[in-house]
């Protein structure tokens, strides 16, 4: 590997490693197939890159020699380019996956909680409705996770993706529990504020932070 390739390897974003990871399982896949698989696996515990990101990373991986592609033959009505991981790509991916220093802490960006944090600017009914919508959306995601788990359980090579999906199932169950607790907290806060003077309900004083 040239020094230029080594530099590019060190600069690879997580999206590139994720796409290469999708290629590390048996078989060749098109960019569209990689997107479908990301939507039914990666998005439940990380995120799913856009199709444009997938193709951009596939081009980058080919330039590095980590992936190779070939167009389908005349037997297919519509020509497709299928991608596969190379030996160099598998070695690089194994090295990255084994480097725990690159894993980093989980990042939580909870849009609903940001709005709850600003609840003093919203009506209590609206906040409860937001939480209710979040619970319904989470139940739908949980059903999708379980569907993906059922598919993964049928493929021996997907044993580790199945473990990640099992973790995601537990995370969604915990999210439902947290959402129900948040509804209870909002109800308690609303009940406590009901008998208080209007000025008191607006809040005031120092910010709720230590120091």
Task: Please explain how this structure is put together.
This protein is mainly α and 211 residues long. The chain has helices at residues 3-10, 14-23, 31-39, 51-64, 87-97, 111-117, 124-152, 159-194, 198-201; strands at 67-71, 81-85. Strands 1-2 form a two-stranded antiparallel ribbon. The longest helix has 36 residues, at 159-194.
What does this entry show, briefly?
The protein is mostly helical and 211 residues long. Helix content is 61%, strand content 5%. Strands 1-2 form a two-stranded antiparallel ribbon.
Helix and strand topology:
Layout: H1 3-10, H2 14-23, H3 31-39, H4 51-64, E1 67-71, E2 81-85, H5 87-97, H6 111-117, H7 124-152, H8 159-194, H9 198-201
Antiparallel strand pairs: 1-2
Helix pairs in contact: 2-4, 3-4, 7-8
List keywords for this structure.
211 residues, mainly alpha, 61% helix, elongated
Distance between the termini: 53 Å
**Unreliable segments (pLDDT under 50, ≥5 consecutive)?**
none
The count of helical stretches stands at 9
Given helix and strand content, the structural type is: mainly alpha
**N to C succession of SSEs:** HHHHEEHHHHH
Mean pLDDT: 87
Count of individual beta strands: 2
Tell me the strand percentage band.
Answer: under 5%
Overall, the morphology is elongated
Give the spatial strand order of the biggest sheet: 1-2
Computed Rg: 23 Å
- Biggest β-sheet strands, sense, barrel: 2 strands, antiparallel
Percent helix among the residues?
Answer: 55-70%
């Amino acid at each position: 590997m040239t020094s230029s390739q080594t530099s590019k390897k060190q600069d690879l974003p997580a999206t590139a490693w994720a796409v290469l990871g999708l290629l590390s399982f048996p078989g060749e896949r098109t960019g569209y197939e990689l997107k479908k698989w990301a939507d039914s696996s990666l998005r439940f515990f990380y995120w799913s890159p856009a199709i444009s990101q997938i193709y951009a990373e596939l081009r980058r991986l080919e330039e590095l020699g980590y992936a190779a592609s070939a167009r389908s033959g005349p037997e297919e009505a519509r020509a497709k380019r299928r991608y596969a991981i190379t030996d160099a790509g598998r070695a690089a991916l194994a090295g990255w996956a084994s480097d725990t220093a690159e894993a980093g802490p989980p990042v939580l960006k909870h849009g609903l909680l940001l709005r709850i944090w600003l609840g003093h600017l919203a009506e209590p009914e609206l906040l409860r409705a937001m939480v209710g919508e979040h619970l319904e959306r989470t139940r739908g995601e949980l059903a999708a996770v379980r569907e993906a788990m059922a598919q993964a359980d049928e493929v021996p090579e997907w044993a580790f993706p199945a473990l990640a999906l099992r973790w995601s199932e537990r995370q969604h169950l915990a999210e439902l529990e947290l959402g129900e607790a948040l509804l209870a907290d909002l109800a308690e806060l609303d009940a406590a504020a009901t008998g208080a003077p209007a000025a008191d309900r607006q809040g005031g004083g120092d910010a709720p932070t230590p120091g």
